[in-house]
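Recall the central idea of this unit: under ordinary conditions, the amino acid sequence of a chain determines the structure it adopts. In this exercise we apply that idea directly, starting from the sequence alone.
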Amino acid sequence: MVGKGKSVAHISNSLDYVLNKDDAKIIKRNGLSGITSEMLQQEFAMYQLGNIRCEKNIFSFVISPHIKDCPHISNEKFEYICEKFMKRLGLENQEYIAVKHTPPNKRTHLHIYCNRILNNRAIKDYFIGKKCQKIANDIAKDLGLIQVNKIKEQNIIVKQNELKEIRKEIYQRHKKALRRKITDFETYMIYMKQEGVEIQPTINRKGEIQGFRVSYQGHQLKATEVHRNMSLSRSHLTTKQTKHPSLKKFKSEENDLDMKITKSEQITKKHIENGKEENKSRRTRRNSFN
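Accordingly, the structure predicted from this sequence is:
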């Protein structure tokens, strides 16, 4: 079960949507009797007259059970979930309305709009989103429903198992290359590409190849992350060209920049010398005039 929450302003359009979309059904209302969105908005405004400075004066919540649980949750159970949710947030005595939506994809969920103003003060909304998720998760646990954190843990395990298989497949192709007595790194790159594994050399500041990364089926890993024996040294792969070509370009650009700087310095120096000579001639003319 997923729980979301935030403070919002100007809910007229939201109320229209909530009351008129996806087989909307009012599950629970507290302190509100309005039928239309206009009537509900007027009621909320009445309770909020004591604090006109707070713009985000409504709490908006969404409670979404897992799609596998949705067919087994009756309206009465949704009402119970709503009451537990609001009580754990400390909002059970506030004015609110809860509406159930059943969209075509059958992901049934609740929309709750709640007055945020109490005794002319705005109820704090610090970390309201995290609180909602924790409360929804606790309610799901109490009711034996699917918990979102359990799904995340399962997804992590699945990804870890998938990555383990990816590493295994890359390392098998690596060992196959070594069994063919490939010792030259460039030849190794070509062979691995034929096997579906892209090799990207890692270049240090000196322009030397110090290792490599692998890319396979959308996964990018350091060679040593695949297996500790996949390093250049342990694989006994030699590189014919220790200096990477991009370094030559960099050095050429660096030399061009040095030449430009030197030329600029020479021009500046010449301007200074010409200025000194001009000042000297002016002083000479002034002295002769005196």
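The beta strands are 2-8, 25-30, 58-64, 96-101, 109-115, 117-118, 121-122, 198-203, 209-216, 219-222.
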